């Protein structure tokens, strides 16, 4: 990650986002000021990582993103090692290398950003979340911070950000069986969509 680039990009994007997508951010106190953690958010648009980086400036976030994004040279420059330090992951397969890099990010005390839906929901309709994030979360043993983006992005439409308290999975131990991972995913899912108005608790 290039922190100077990260800071400059935040500075450039902030007035642009303030004009076109004003926001109210609630729960910022739930973001740990130090130590590794995992930030899990719903996925509305390709700009979500940049938007959240601007709206939650208390930390720097290393995002897991689909490998296809890095085929675009501009996106690769912004998201890659010389920019935001993102980790490309091959979807639809067990990308062990990406998982190891993600775990290393958290172990080294940084913030890892993941969109558990695995793909975008442009109209912000709740869609199922995948178990991949749960495996990383259980292995990392770090706080899981749920974030809800109240999209979609429409010009001059508020895109508010709600940050929840850490998802509690301490009672599940460090098991990696399917039932445990599914339960972790369910709790993350419930925490994120529970911050969306009109979504009933599961």
Q: Please tell me the overall pLDDT.
A: 88
Secondary structure tally, helices: 6
Order of helices and strands: HEEHEHEHEHEEH
Q: What's the arrangement of strands in the largest beta sheet?
A: 1-7-6-2-5-3-4
- The share of residues in helices is 25-40%
Q: Give the low-confidence spans.
A: 198-202
Cα end-to-end separation: 38 Å
How large is the share of residues in beta strands? 15-25%
Quick one: how many beta strands? 7
Shape: globular
The biggest beta sheet is recorded as: 7 strands, mixed
Structural class: alpha/beta
Radius of gyration: 16 Å
Set down the secondary structure blueprint.
Elements (H helix, E strand, L loop, with lengths): L2 H18 L4 E2 L10 E5 L6 H8 L5 E6 L6 H7 L7 E3 L6 H12 L3 E4 L17 H9 L3 E7 L9 E4 L14 H16 L9
Parallel strand pairs: 1-7, 2-5, 2-6, 3-4, 3-5
Antiparallel strand pairs: 6-7
Helix pairs in contact: 1-2, 5-6
């Amino acid at each position: 990650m290039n922190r100077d680039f990260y800071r400059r990009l935040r500075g450039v994007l902030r007035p642009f986002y303030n004009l076109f997508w004003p926001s109210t951010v609630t729960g910022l106190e739930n973001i740990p000021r130090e130590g590794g953690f995992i930030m899990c958010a719903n996925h509305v648009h390709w700009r979500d990582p940049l938007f959240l980086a601007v709206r939650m400036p208390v930390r720097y976030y290393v995002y897991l993103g689909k490998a296809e994004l890095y085929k675009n040279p501009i996106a690769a420059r912004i998201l890659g090692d010389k920019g935001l330090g993102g980790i490309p992951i091959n979807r639809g397969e067990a990308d062990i290398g990406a998982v190891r890099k993600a775990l290393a990010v958290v172990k080294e005390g940084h913030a890892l950003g993941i969109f558990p839906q695995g793909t975008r929901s442009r109209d912000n309709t709740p869609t199922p979340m995948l178990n991949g994030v749960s495996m990383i979360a259980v292995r990392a043993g770090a706080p899981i911070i749920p974030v809800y983006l109240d999209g979609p992005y429409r010009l001059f439409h508020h895109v508010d950000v709600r940050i929840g308290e850490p998802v509690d999975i301490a009672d599940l131990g460090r098991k990696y069986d399917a039932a445990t991972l599914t339960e972790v995913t369910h709790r993350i899912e419930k925490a994120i969509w529970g911050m969306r108005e009109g979504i009933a608790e599961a």
